[in-house]
Amino acid sequence: MMLDAVRHVVDNGVKWVNLPCDFPPYRRVHAFARRRQVTGLLDGLHDRLRDKVRQKEGRGVDPTAAIVDSQSVRAAANIARFTSGWDGGKRVGGRKRHLVADCLGLVLAVAVTAANVQDRDAAVPLPERLRRLYFSVRLVRADGGYAGRPVGWASGRLRTSTSRSRSSNARTAPRGSWCCRAGG
Fold it and tell me: What is the pLDDT of residues 99-136, one digit of tens each?
């Protein structure tokens, strides 16, 4: 019942306070979810599910290639102003998710920032986190927004091959710009 309540909040984007009366009291459900998050249970569950999907797709458990990109999302009116910003390139006010995914699109690492933070600045912790969790990654692809410091730093320090696409628009990206080597 508690997991169903947590799933309801996540799937529907409702506030904890607005849980339907069919579920336990929202404070108990929130405490239940928070305990699982703090103990790392949710991260472990995510990792195990990702490994199973990779195996089912005929891939090794450890990825050898990754893709880095960001997505700006609108912030709700009740989000604190200092945690959100304006992304002028995408014309969105809110937050930005910086994702590292494997070739199947499964999430390897995430960083969330205000939307006004440049991709190249926000991505600095991602390669280190990626290297700590997945030492097998040898190829990282990124779009032009990640030019400069993170690309050079990742290549040199982490001994990974990095490459950038000239366009961040998926429809106009050069052919093969998001393809990864076989075995990734």
Answer: 889 999 999 988 888 888 888 787 778 877 888 888 88
Query: Would you say the C-alpha torsion 43, 44, 45, 47 has a positive or negative sign?
Result: positive
pTM of the predicted protein model: 0.70
- Roughly how many angstroms between the first and final C-alpha of the chain, as a whole number? 38
Q: Alpha carbon of 17 to those of 8, 20, 24, 27, 181: distances in Å?
A: 12, 9, 11, 8, 47
CA 17 to chain centroid, in Å, comes to: 27
**What residues pair up with 74 in beta bridges, in sequence order?**
94
Spatial distance between the Cα atoms of 140 and 67, rounded to a whole number of angstroms: 6
60-165 CATH fold? Nucleotidyltransferase; domain 5 (3.30.420)
153 DSSP assignment: H
Distance CA 48, CA 41 (A): 11
Helices 41-56 + 26-38 axis angle, to 10: 70
Q: How many CB atoms lie within 10 A of CB 144?
A: 13
Q: Within the chain, which residue ranges are assigned CATH 3.30.420.10?
A: 60-165
**Other residues' Cβ atoms within 10 Å of the Cβ of residue 66:** 26
